[in-house]
Amino acid sequence: MMTTKLNVCATLLAGAVRDCLPKSHFSTGQPLHHIIKLTRLRVVDNSALGRAAMQAGKPPRCIHVYNKKGVGTIGDKVLVAIKGQKKRGYIVGCRQTQPPGMPRFDSNNLVLVDDAGAPLGTRIRAAIPSLLRGRKTGDFSKILAIATKFV
């Protein structure tokens, strides 16, 4: 009888403490392992827009993945919201488990491109998977030209 009263009191106390704490209106969780809508990405080129967003602590979020599955992987084109603008980009690194022969990264990396497919930056600061060279879909030749490190 005493333990049930203690359990009830502990439950009520936990609810009261939870209600008193301020609620945050922003996401504080870790980035997702797969790239779907609202996934936070890391801009790895040196574009002014990407650099400003990353320094402000507001990384771009995925709005749409341009494939049939809706889950992005290395080499897929995505639409992102960054600093109040909509920009396109290519995924050049994923945290999700990859098939054999494809590298796995520590973060979800993105290279921003304009509507013509040209990268917004002039350098890429992270390693790019070399398997993008033989990719049939997407125009990676300009991205590969400004990359300095390959995995």
Give keywords.
22% helix, single chain, 5-stranded mixed beta sheet, 5 strands, alpha+beta, 3 helices, 151 residues
Strand content: 15-25%
- End-to-end span in angstroms? 64 Å
Number of helices, where a helix is a run of at least 4 consecutive DSSP H or I residues:
3
Q: What is the 3D shape?
A: globular
Largest sheet: 5 strands, mixed
Describe the structure.
The structure is a single chain. This protein has 151 residues and is α+β, with helices and mostly antiparallel strands. Helices cover 22% and strands 18% of the residues. The chain contains 3 helices and 5 strands. A 5-stranded mixed β-sheet has the order 1-5-4-3-2. Strand 3 and strand 4 form a beta hairpin.
Short description:
By secondary structure, the chain is of the alpha+beta class. It contains three helices and five strands. A hairpin with a 2-residue loop joins strand 3 and strand 4 (85-93).
Topology:
Elements lengths: L1 H19 L21 E2 L4 H8 L5 E5 L11 E6 L2 E9 L15 E5 L27 H6 L5
Parallel strand pairs: 1-5
Antiparallel strand pairs: 2-3, 3-4, 4-5
